Amino acid sequence: MSPVRLVILAILFYIGYRMLRGLGSSGSGQVEEEKKDRAGKEPGVQDVLVEDPVCHTLIPRHQAVRLRQQGKTWYFCSEDCCDRFIEGGETPRDDV
User: What would the pLDDT profile of 32-55 be if each residue is shown by its tens digit?
Assistant: First the structure.
């Protein structure tokens, strides 16, 4: 075999090796799925805004004060709003 053919064969084997190796490892779609699984949510989504039923302020859910009552979770912007809700001074409006 001539040296040119050996070089061409070597290049073709290298390209084939890289392609097979790329198929064996996780592709970009699988990487995104793994990130989603680890984080528990889609990448890029930081948090969801929730509305306080007393003062109607929008707050990130992870920063909200939570109250579990009658099987429903209520989110509040502060302890004061939560206390007002518990005392019955404010009622949530479902029509908003």
Answer: 555 555 555 555 666 789 999 999
